[in-house]
Specification:
mainly beta; 3-stranded antiparallel β-sheet
């Protein structure tokens, strides 16, 4: 069971039990990895695609076209993925260069 603040629909589904909110992330049983950012949550599915929930004001949840991903990380307002071929992809805010990963290979 995962618990947390859900003010921006980060965790999507909430249940009230004995005065506490218990949150279930809307990812699937076939999701081997989940990462939580400042206002969003992402998960890698076994087929290499990525799902996201929560605030996407800076594009950090724009992962619907990602394929061949084996690992993800989520920052405050950005998301990074490592593909099976060793390249890196990133979306979200880039005010400090945190998504400037084009050309990264062999990771």
């Amino acid at each position: 069971m995962i618990r947390g603040f859900n003010g921006r629909n980060i965790l999507a589904v909430a249940f009230l039990l004995l005065g506490f909110f218990f949150i279930i992330i809307p990812v699937y049983a076939a999701t081997p990895q989940v990462a939580a950012g400042g206002w969003h949550t992402v998960g890698v599915k076994t087929d290499g695609t990525v799902v996201a929930a929560g605030n996407g004001d800076y594009g950090q949840a724009n992962v619907s076209g990602w394929t061949g991903i084996e690992q993800v990380a989520a920052g405050g307002c950005h998301t990074v993925g490592v593909k099976t071929d060793g390249t890196v992809v990133a979306v979200g805010i880039n005010n400090n260069g945190q998504t400037s990963v084009s050309g990264w290979t062999g990771i």
